[in-house]
């Protein structure tokens, strides 16, 4: 199964977001669709269709939450009531 080296951001909420795919590691298997050794004419769904987990990750740490978590948090806050 082919894999990537990636660079990304680890957010305070625990999510990891890939910012760049640095390098592809080719597994060399003829049964992996992502490999250069896989026959182009093969249409079998028995072959491996996806990349494996990242082989190496260069990570920056952020103290903020990711966009999805920020939106989920702020969309579920109760509406503020105006004081008179």
Question: Helicity, in percent?
Answer: 10-25%
Count of alpha/pi helices: 1
Q: Tell me the number of structural domains.
A: 1
Q: Tell me, rounded to a whole number, the average pLDDT.
A: 90
What shape does the CA trace take?
A: elongated
Order of helices and strands: EEEH
Number of strands: 3
CA(first)-CA(last) distance: 64 Å
Brief summary:
By secondary structure, the protein is mostly beta strands.
Question: What features would you describe in this structure?
Answer:
The protein has one domain. The protein has 84 residues and is mainly beta. A hairpin with a 5-residue loop joins strand 1 and strand 2.
What features would you highlight for this structure?
3 strands; mainly beta; three-stranded mixed beta sheet; 84 residues; single chain; 1 helix
Q: What layout of secondary structure does this protein have?
A:
Layout: E1 3-10, E2 16-25, E3 56-61, H1 67-75
Parallel strand pairs: 1-3
Antiparallel strand pairs: 1-2
């Amino acid at each position: 199964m082919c894999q990537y080296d990636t660079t990304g951001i680890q957010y305070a909420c625990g999510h990891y977001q890939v910012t760049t795919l640095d390098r592809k590691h080719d597994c060399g298997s003829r049964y992996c669709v992502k490999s250069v050794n896989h026959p182009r004419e093969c249409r079998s769904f028995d072959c491996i269709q996806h990349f494996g987990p990242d082989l190496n990750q260069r990570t920056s740490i952020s103290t903020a939450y990711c966009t999805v978590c920020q939106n989920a948090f702020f969309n579920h806050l109760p509406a503020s009531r105006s004081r008179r």
